[in-house]
Amino acid sequence: MKYKKICTVVNPDSDQAKSLSMNIAKKYSDHSWQIIENFDFSNVEKMDLVIAIGGDGTLLRAVSLSLKFDVPVLGINMGTVGFMTEIEGENAMDELNFYLTETVRTEVRSLLEVELNFKKDPVVYKALNDIVIARGSSVSMIETITEIDGVHLATYRGDGIVVTTATGSTGYSLALGGPVIDPKSNDYYIKPIATHMSQFGGVIVNSESVCEITISSRKDALISIDGFIEHKISNGDKIILKISESKAKFLRKNPSHFYWSTITEKLGIRKGKVQ
Fold it and tell me: How many other C-beta atoms lie within 10 A of the C-beta of residue 210?
């Protein structure tokens, strides 16, 4: 079998996800299983496939593990919407065998590479969804001085800024009025949060371009990377963003054009059956 060594990353707050993980491991006992229920990946051994059992938050964490070994992720949705997951939890026991035994499509998604330059040594992260720079508990607004390839784009003064990949375009940026970007796109999108330019549609940046954001704030602010990595940031701190050379990989059954019918169905704006 193509995927002999498998690691399941389980939502630790979901008893249903934990139970499903154990049931899958029992049913497919001819595979080698590692089960992670606490998002601690320090002792994970090399595997061929990562299965994320939970919602999109669990899948985002699973992607960080899959990048370490350059293997695909299969998402099983135990949440509500699950934009990035592939299988619904109630169908997992019946449908999983197809992904483990048949030839399925591997979908490649772009990642943002995020370099934080406010300590002695720069720290680099990769984000599948987005990075959010926002004011902390203070009511004071922050300024985000934004440059593209060394050219000043804008100084946004408000609650912060969101930079999102095509994958993350169905998340926070969509709630801010941003567009849904084709998942095959390598470009990324910048949108300010609650500024005097809030009606400004934001900008879609070419995948070859580098974005640098400098913080101007009298109070501490926060940067969130994919919703589970957070750092405090201060006046003068710089964040450098670009599209990573690494890619996230997902197992998919349907052709890529099914994305549009699936996403509009999940958003509740499409009626009728998929053609």
Answer: 15
Separation between Cα atoms, residue 224 and residue 238, nearest integer Å: 14
Residue 273 pLDDT: 58
As a whole number of angstroms, the distance between CA 256 and CA 109 comes to: 12
Position 267 in a domain: no
Does the residue 137 lie in any domain?
yes
Average pLDDT over residues 102-108: 93
- Greatest CA span in the chain, whole angstroms? 59
The question of whether 56 is a catalytic residue gets the answer yes
Task: Give residue for tokens 């109070």.
Answer: 219
Measured torsion, CA atoms of residues 29, 34, 37, 38, in degrees rounded to the nearest 10: 170
Q: Cα separation of 156 and 51, whole Å?
A: 39
pLDDT of residue 121: 83
Span 41-93, pLDDT tens digits = 999 999 999 999 999 999 999 999 999 999 999 999 997 777 889 999 999 99
241 and 120 within one domain: yes
- The pTM assigned to this predicted structure is 0.91
Domain that holds residue 119: 111-246
Contact 145, 152 (CB under 8 A): yes
Name the active-site residue from 13, 30, 48, 56.
Answer: 56
Average pLDDT, the chain: 91
Tell me the C-alpha distance between 97 and 209, whole Å: 41
